[in-house]
Amino acid sequence: MKLSVKLGLWIFICILLIETVSMIFLHNNVVRSRIDQELNSLKARGNSHRDVLEMAFNDSTLQHIRLMEAHTDTFVVVANSAGEVLLTSKEINEGMKKILDQSSSQLPRQGVILQSEWKEEAYIATVTPYETGTDKGSVYMFRDTENVKAFVSQLNRHFMLASIWILSFMFITIFLLTKVLTRPLIIMKEATRKLSKGDFSVSVPVQSHDELGELAQSIQTLANDLNYMKQERNDFLASISHELRTPLTYIKGYADIARRTNIRPQERTHYLQIIGEESERVNRLLEELFSLARIDQNEFLITKERVQLFPFLHSIYERVLPAFLTKNIELQLDSDQDIFVDIDPSRFGQVLSNILDNALKYSNEGTTTTIRAIKRDRNVVISIQDQGIGIPEEDIPYVFERLYRVEKSRARITGGFGLGLAIAKQLVEIHGGSLSVKSKPGAGTVFTIVLKES
């Protein structure tokens, strides 16, 4: 069953139940109010006749009361204390006699209702006591229930007609409402169907700011992310293919040359050395790819330990210092002595080595690279700042993406595969920290790592 049908049925059933209960309640109260009104009117007329009798109890007064009731739809019976009927505006029948027989001698001054049941009885009736100087008695008032039943029958017809109009309006409203509510869902269903088939170029319009709008926005975000991931995957595969094709071409080409019999031993050794270097380059690429794969699959384990930061940074400083001195770049270390962090020394050393390697590659002779560590707001901030060529502003958002290189020519002199910073960022995040970069072309670059202090 379609969602629109289910939704329409649920709304219909709920509104129908509410309408039915409301109609029944309203109908019963209207009928009850009308009956109470009729009974109170009867009792008021009886009280009025009682007052007239008590002011002047004689045949003239009795005839006057009979004349008053002769032209109305009510009937009056006046009886004395002995039960003798002194006045009746209509011939007493069995229904009226049954009511007269159940009257009590102890009646309140304002009268009582003798018969209120209108569905099964022929009359509704009230009785009011009177008292003169010479006698006591009762004034009985009757009203035929046929009039009440006719009123209820007419009321039922009005309620039925109102119900039909309400149901018709409800059907139209539910139909339009389900169309309005389910149309966005149908659009989203088509969008998800396209997504399942690999078509990520879908567009889901956000037409409201409610839950449906949030769902549409989520699906659109998912589609955009999947489309981005698809493009990134294609770019990644193309980049990997390019990175592998170049060294493999070198290996194959120089292997073919090395197999020749007419080359000198020194040349063969040179070619074999190039083959070895390219093989090592392919091996490094595969190791970095394997590391990324393990990180993506949450299989990359780190073993944290409490480390004093200054000796740890100093060991890395001493390890990379010769390379910086060879290029005539000054390397400085500035760190507080009392900083402790929870890190995996091996993995975190890999992070710092990757960043320092970038600083070395893209800094000119005579510049300075500074490693600095400070405490700030219960955090440890480690920064590596160089005075290199810097990163163009448009490239900064992408420097941590896999296989992204600011130097688009992929010159072999600069080395690297564009994976070092991607691995570094994910390793820092596994440690519970963050890695960010700020740079200005010609002024240098600063990479900042923020960790929790141990």
Automatic annotation (TrEMBL):
Gene3D superfamilies, sorted: 1.10.287.130, 6.10.340.10, Histidine kinase-like ATPase, C-terminal domain
GO molecular function: ATP binding; phosphoprotein phosphatase activity; phosphorelay sensor kinase activity
A UniProt-annotated Pfam family: HATPase_c
One GO BP annotation of this record: cellular response to phosphate starvation
One GO term describing the cellular component: plasma membrane
Primary location group: membrane
Membrane topology: Multi-pass membrane protein
Keywords: ATP-binding, Cell membrane, Kinase, Membrane, Nucleotide-binding, Phosphoprotein, Transferase, Transmembrane, Transmembrane helix, Two-component regulatory system
Subcellular location: Cell membrane
InterPro entries: BphY/WalK/GraS-like, HAMP_dom, HATPase_C_sf, HATPase_dom, His_kinase_dom, HisK_dim/P_dom, HisK_dim/P_sf, Sig_transdc_His_kin-like_C
Domain HAMP, residue spans: 179-231
Database matches in PROSITE patterns: HAMP, HIS_KIN
Enzyme Commission no: 2.7.13.3
Keyword Membrane among record annotations: yes
Entry's transmembrane regions: 7-26, 159-178
Lineage: superkingdom: Bacteria
Record's protein name: histidine kinase
Lineage of producing organism: Bacteria, Bacillati, Bacillota, Bacilli, Bacillales
